[in-house]
């Protein structure tokens, strides 16, 4: 298990300069500085949990993220093998031909993205089965790009967008990071919408001026391609068109898929925020108080309150709590209901004996 | 805000007969019966958080879920409007025609799912723009079906699958629910894979015996359709074929998309479980003990331990905690560091005065 990086999250968190920005979210520190003493504010298991956000420090500065490198390698292998295979069966593919290698690559891209114009179609058992294999592999790869690679690129560009938007105001890098943290998904939506608009414009203009389509046909071909519909009555027929398509089709289709993903994320986040607001502002009753009192001492302390409210928000479940409680009982060797230094030593000794 | 249903989760949870099964997950109750007293074990905000699992009681028994009804209504409106629009411009659509209404519905389905064979293609500005509009609306609808409707149907069928698999063993409904709860995503993958196999078989056999394709062509057409590739060299050309396609295309394409989603979910869950295991089994050190001690009393009680570990698992963040702490400080009017009945009364009075 490769979670060595998670072994010292407290120390690494403290050494991280971007960590400072977190303070902006700390409560208006009255008495409860104590809650800041809890560690792991930025805990992210590096390769363990694919759904975790990247730690800020890793995603903005420094080298490429390992996930991203992996996606790039898979994509290169896929396109390399695809082009080679389809080039070797090029006589078994019918349709409008230009350059042999280019057509094979173009066919590979059109298949991978499931656009499937049909301007080139496999015409033998072998080429048909190859196309079947490459479309399934292409869909998996598309999913991988969406989940591991594309989001990473958007997060990198997000910084530039927010900086550009706040160009006229005096803001430091800390404020930029804070602004992104607060409205992350919204900025992603905005960025991806702008990119999609650029894809639309560039694609339409290219089809008008290079492929010689009318405005309506160009727009229709762009829509048909970006959505992976690909009726095939309009497609990229010239050499220049296919060179353009090889770059434009994958980026534009991924772009639209991302927009849909981010809109869904924004939607979920908005509802989640409304729920959090509702949970936090509703009146506590005596029933709540009694229910929140985990150790039955008649009062609810800060930790009990936090667990109660987070559970109500749906962020943690009873099963999560039960799992941790089992571990707590193991560690609490003297059965005092609290863990102290002596418990730790006793527990370690008993583990060593086992 | 429609969170009225969340107002009495404690009571509704207690009145729920399926709730009994939760006890199976409670810790091997030694001293800590106390943690069971915490409420909201099944708290789910019904319409607030789309990502939440449905409460078991709602998803298995009883009426259809509101999300599902909404998806069904949207789909009917989309197909109704689509068929009407494309029927009205039927003279502006070129290609192999059968029955007017059927062709319009078939074209609508082929567009909505982004299969886009191209056996029927729009041939006027109006029909092209209509196709553009319907493909974008169709993609959004597809996303909605995937996120709100399809999962609900799979969860309903999951019960039947698990019952069938355990037919020969003596198991009660409680055991079935427990088994599903533990291996939920795995059963979903299995179920959707079986359904996909059925779609493959039925589609291939239909194309061989009704459309008269060869085995390879039929398989190739099924692959090309299910993945929404749709080159269009093979498609449904007869009246019977198009009637079949109208039902088979949407269900099979959604089916494959679901399989990809569940595989991703399974992947994430496996890594999440590995992380939970690692967090729970790693040795507590004195540094951990100090860090977990939120109220600085030198010992770590159960609630502090739970918060510390859940944070380490990445299930809750410092921001979540800070938000709740702010509310706690508001409520803790006498600044005792604990909430008691008197705090609640004081807080309510001060809120009334405001």
Give an overview of the whole structure.
Chains A, B: Pfam families: Ion_trans_2. Chains A, B: This is EF-hand domain-containing protein. Chains A, B: The chain crosses the membrane at residues 71-89, 101-120, 126-146, 185-210, 243-264. Two copies of one chain form a homodimer. Chain A is mainly α. Among the domains of chain A are: 66-269, Helix Hairpins, CATH 1.10.287.70; 320-354, no CATH class. In chain A, 64% of the residues lie in helices and 3% in strands. Chain A has helices at residues 9-15, 56-60, 66-88, 100-112, 125-165, 173-182, 184-209, 215-226, 239-281, 286-292, 302-312, 318-331, 341-353; strands at residues 93-95, 120-122, 300-301, 338-339. Chain A has a two-stranded antiparallel ribbon. The model of chain A is unreliable at 1-62 (pLDDT under 50). Strand 3 of chain A pairs antiparallel with strand 4 of chain B.
CATH structural class of the domain at 66-269 in chain A: Mainly Alpha
Structural class of chain A: mainly alpha
Helix segment count of chain A?
13
- Name the overall outline of chain A: elongated
Unreliable stretches of chain A (pLDDT < 50, length at least 5) are: 1-62
Binned, the helix content of chain A reads: 55-70%
